[in-house]
């Protein structure tokens, strides 16, 4: 099934697409489909990011865990009391 796709692009890119498609003898639709497929292949070939590597150290805090828990519980309790009153 084919769907209609609409987007705004820079005029310079549109002119470039016109030149390329005329030179290659293909339609703009074919050009865009090929470009999307090529980009999708490129992204799927790239290694998946390592979540553990990216988040390592994100939880390092100067305060003790008990202090963090106490602060969070206090904020939660204030929120509950504000909405109950």
Provide a descriptive summary of the structure in words.
The protein is an all-alpha fold and 85 residues long. 67% of the residues lie in helices and 0% in strands. The chain has a domain at 11-45. The chain has helices at residues 11-24, 28-45, 51-55, 65-84. The model has no long low-confidence stretch (mean pLDDT 89).
Number of helices: 4
Task: Tell me how many strands there are.
Answer: 0
| Largest sheet features | none
- Percent of residues in β-strands: under 5%
Shape: elongated
Distance between the termini: 55 Å
> H/E series, N to C?
HHHH
Structural class: mainly alpha
Estimate percent helicity.
55-70%
Radius of gyration: 26 Å
Task: Identify low-pLDDT runs.
Answer: none
Topology, element by element:
Blueprint lengths: L10 H14 L3 H18 L5 H5 L9 H20 L1
Quick summary:
With 85 residues, this protein is mainly α. It contains 4 helices and no strands.
Features:
4 helices, 85 residues, mainly alpha
């Amino acid at each position: 099934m084919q769907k209609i796709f609409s987007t705004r692009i820079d005029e310079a890119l549109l002119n470039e697409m016109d030149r390329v498609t005329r030179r290659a003898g293909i339609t703009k639709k074919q050009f865009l489909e090929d470009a999307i497929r090529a980009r999708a292949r490129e992204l799927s070939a790239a290694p998946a990011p390592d979540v553990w590597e990216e988040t390592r150290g994100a939880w390092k805090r100067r305060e003790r865990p008990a202090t963090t828990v106490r602060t969070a519980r206090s904020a939660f309790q204030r929120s509950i009391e504000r909405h109950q009153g």
